[in-house]
Amino acid sequence: MSPVNDTFKALADKSRRHIIRILHNGDMTAGEIAKEFSISKPSISHHLNILKQANLVSAEKQGQHIYYSLNTTVIQDLLGWIMDLTGEEGGNEHE
């Protein structure tokens, strides 16, 4: 699958979009993220893995915890791609 396809697949799920909104406020552990949902922790881990595969989030181990953070570069690239499609900001029609 291409990076753009992985991104769209990851964003297709409302729980994953909610995780992205949560992480926009700062890094969190999976347990902290899970408190925002009424789904199981294994389901949260599954969603986080899909977001990691799409490079939308990154994970960093700090002591006994893994902190997840938003990868804004991928989101900026996606927005640039969408702007190119819509012709915004002098998009590249030849791509």
From TrEMBL:
UniProt-listed NCBIfam families: HTH_metalloreg, repress_SdpR
Keyword Transport part of the UniProt annotation: no
Keyword annotations from UniProtKB, A to Z: DNA-binding, Transcription, Transcription regulation
Protein known as: Autorepressor SdpR family transcription factor
Pfam families: HTH_5
InterPro entries cross-referenced by the UniProt entry: ArsR-like_HTH (IPR011991), HTH_ArsR_DNA-bd_dom (IPR001845), HTH_MetalResp_TranReg (IPR051081), SdpR-like_repress (IPR047796), WH-like_DNA-bd_sf (IPR036388), WH_DNA-bd_sf (IPR036390)
Occurrences of domain HTH arsR-type (ranges): 1-90
Taxon lineage: Bacteria, Bacillati, Bacillota, Clostridia, Neomoorellales
PROSITE patterns: HTH_ARSR_2 (PS50987)
GO MF term list: DNA binding; DNA-binding transcription factor activity
